[in-house]
């Protein structure tokens, strides 16, 4: 892809995030997480100043990938799953997949803590509304399927995979682990783990492993995991703090979950590469991406962002702009051998050094197996 089509890259932004990663060893977690958030908003404003036609370029790139994917899969049945596809980044990703010819299954979001019961209650209706809206906007009907999914319950995750397999699709081509929670009051998943870590990582960990046999049947399966620049704000994951409110930090524990996403991608990529060495039919890639600071429902639990609604809309990206790396990783050609990377604005980036530590990756994997009872198998 010509770099002229990409959003302007700020190397000062990349350098600052790596500085935060090194400073996270001494600075408070809440402070480093806040610094990352501020820097992401500064980048958004800078990009708008540097590239006045940023929105038009975004639309052009999106259509290019859709057209390329349609041409590459003409006459084929292609199937995708997008968790949290009923709103925000997931909605935009699901919409692009439908336009590219994919039958797209929407996992209709995650359960919120009890204090947000009203929000959770409306998730089913919002899922149906999303399907109706996508069908109206694209003129494409019959390509979207809604299946219940509560990522805070591993039982629900397993029920989702059973229901998906019962639909009778021959394979799964794309899995987008998009759904997430951020900056929420302390709460626990059904299995007793901190809610942000449980939903953002553990739920998707089980979902991915459950669906690997279906991805194996694809001629080129792709797994996309939404991480975040927040992963730079922590130098480790404090596993001992995942079952108690003691020391809970709304943004800090979000950072743990986003670092976990990166560690998971690296560890899974290594396992997939090893499996492919003994079975050449296994062609599955896994990559992470950062959407940038976006104005989505993730902010609904942040009182300050709700007060500063007007300002937030200016300094934060639109859901479409934030979804562009997910759309790129699902649809663009030439990525068949690209795996284990972390993308931002459609470019692989240098991650927090701790995410490259194989011991940290394997510790995350071992803890995830311990917490869920699931392990890698094809």
TrEMBL record:
Keywords, comma-separated and alphabetical: Oxidoreductase
Bilayer-crossing regions: none
GO MF annotation: an example: oxidoreductase activity
UniProt keyword Oxidoreductase present: yes
Pfam family, one: adh_short
Protein name per its UniProtKB record: Uncharacterized protein
């Amino acid at each position: 892809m010509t770099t002229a089509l990409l959003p302007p890259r700020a190397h000062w932004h990349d350098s600052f995030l790596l500085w935060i990663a090194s400073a996270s060893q001494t600075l408070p977690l809440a402070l480093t997480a806040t610094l990352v958030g501020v820097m992401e908003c500064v980048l958004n404003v800078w990009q708008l100043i540097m590239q006045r036609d940023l929105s038009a370029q975004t639309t052009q790139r999106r259509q290019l990938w859709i057209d390329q994917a349609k041409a590459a899969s003409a006459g084929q049945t292609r199937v995708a799953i997008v968790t949290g596809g009923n709103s925000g980044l997931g909605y935009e990703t699901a919409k692009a997949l439908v336009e590219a010819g994919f039958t797209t299954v929407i996992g209709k979001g995650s359960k919120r803590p009890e204090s947000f019961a009203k929000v959770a209650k409306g998730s089913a209706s919002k899922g149906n509304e999303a399907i109706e809206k996508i069908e109206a906007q694209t003129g494409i009907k019959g390509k979207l399927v809604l299946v219940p999914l509560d990522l805070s319950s591993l039982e629900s995750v397993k029920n989702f995979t059973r229901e998906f397999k019962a639909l009778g699709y021959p394979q799964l081509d794309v899995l987008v682990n998009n759904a997430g929670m951020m900056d929420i009051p302390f709460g626990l998943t059904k299995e007793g783990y901190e809610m942000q870590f449980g939903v953002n990582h553990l739920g998707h960990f089980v979902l991915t492993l459950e669906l690997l046999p279906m991805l194996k049947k694809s001629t080129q399966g792709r797994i996309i995991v939404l991480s975040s620049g927040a992963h730079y704000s922590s130098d480790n994951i404090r596993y001992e703090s995942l079952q108690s409110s003691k020391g809970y930090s709304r943004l800090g524990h979000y950072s743990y979950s986003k670092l976990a996403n990166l560690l998971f991608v690296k560890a899974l990529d290594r396992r997939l590469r090893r499996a492919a060495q003994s079975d050449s039919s296994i062609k599955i890639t896994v990559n992470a991406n950062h959407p940038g600071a976006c104005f989505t429902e993730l902010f609904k639990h942040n009182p300050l962002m709700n007060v500063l609604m007007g300002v937030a809309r200016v300094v934060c990206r639109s859901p479409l702009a934030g979804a562009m790396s997910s759309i790129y990783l699902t649809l663009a050609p030439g990525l068949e051998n690209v795996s284990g990377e972390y993308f931002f604005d459609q470019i692989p980036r240098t991650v927090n050094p701790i995410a490259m530590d194989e011991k940290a990756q394997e510790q995350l994997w071992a803890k995830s197996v311990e917490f869920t009872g699931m392990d890698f198998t094809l």
